[in-house]
Amino acid sequence: MRFIIVDNRTGRARSIGANGLVLGLAFAGLVALPPTTGFLGYQFGVHDAEMNQEVILSWRSTLREQSDQIDDLQEVAQDNLDAASLELARLQARVVRLEALGQRLTEVGDLQEGEFDFVNPPALGGPLTSEDMVDADVAYQPPSYMDELSQLAARVIDREQQLGVLERLLVDRQMLDNTFVAGRPVIKGYQSSDYGWRTDPISGRRAWHNGVDFAGKAGSDVVSVAAGVVVYASPRYGYGNMVEVYHGGGYSTRYGHHDKILVKPGDIVKRGQVVGTMGSSGRSTGPHVHFEVFKNGRIVDPSSYVRRVSR
C-alpha cells in the first residue's frame, strides 16, 4: 500500500509506501517524546513533593501531640510520685510515733517482755509456692517504691492493732486498780472503834458493830476509798447523813454521820474524792465517820481493806 503526499506550496506530489510513513511518524514521536516526558515528570514530581510535604506536616503534628501527651503523663506521674513520697513520709512519721508510744506504754504498764513488740518489724513468713521457686532463679531485684509503701502501711496497721489491744488492757487494769477497795476514808483522823463486838457508846451494852469508826475534826474531809458510782446520798436511820458508793465486782462502801453530803446519786467518784464532811449526825457521840464494806451484798470486816495498799 502506498500514500500520495501533495506539497501545497509547489503543487508537487510524492508517493510514500506504508513502511516509510510508519518510520516517519515513529521518528516524529521520538523527537517529541523527551519534552513530553519531561513535562509529565515535572508535573508528577511537583505533585509527589506536595504529597510528601503534607505527610511530613501531618507527622510533625502527630509527633507534637504525642510529645504533649508524654509531657502530660510525665507531669501526672511526677505529681503521683510526689504524693506517694508525701504519703510515705507521713506513714514513716506515724510509725515512729506509734512505736515510741507503744514502747512507752509497755514500759509504764510493766507488761511481760515480748508480749508487745514495738521495736522490731512484724514477723512474716510462709512456705514457698511453685511460682516463688521459679522466681528464685531470677536475679534479685530490690522492692519497688509501691512495695515499700505497702509494707509500711502494713506496719502501721500492725502497730495500731497492738496499741488497741494494749490500750484496752491498760484501761481494764486501770479500772481494776481504781475500783480496788483500799485505804482509809479520811485524810486526817484516827481509828476510834473496831469491827465486831464492843460496848455500845450510847447504851453501854455489849453490841455488834458492823464497821469501823474514824474520829477527827468536825468538817474535815471524808473520801471514797475507791472509784465508783454513788447509789445513795441521804439521811438514813442510825447512820445520819450517809453516802453509799458501788465499786463494781460486788463491792460497795458506806460512809455515815456526815455533817454535809457533797455528792448525789448517779455521780461517778474517783479514789480519794471527797464525798462529804465529817460530822455527828444520826446515832453518834461526836464527829466521826462510820465506814462499812459490803461484798456481794454481805457486810465484811473493813479492817483488811483499810490496811490494803492501793494499786
From TrEMBL:
The chain crosses the membrane at residues 21-42. It comes from the Bacteria. Keywords: Coiled coil, Membrane, Transmembrane, Transmembrane helix. One of its GO terms (molecular function) is metalloendopeptidase activity. Pfam families: Peptidase_M23 (PF01551). SUPFAM superfamilies: Duplicated hybrid motif. The keyword Coiled coil applies. Residues 209-302 form the M23ase beta-sheet core domain. Residues 74-108 form a coiled coil. This is M23ase beta-sheet core domain-containing protein.
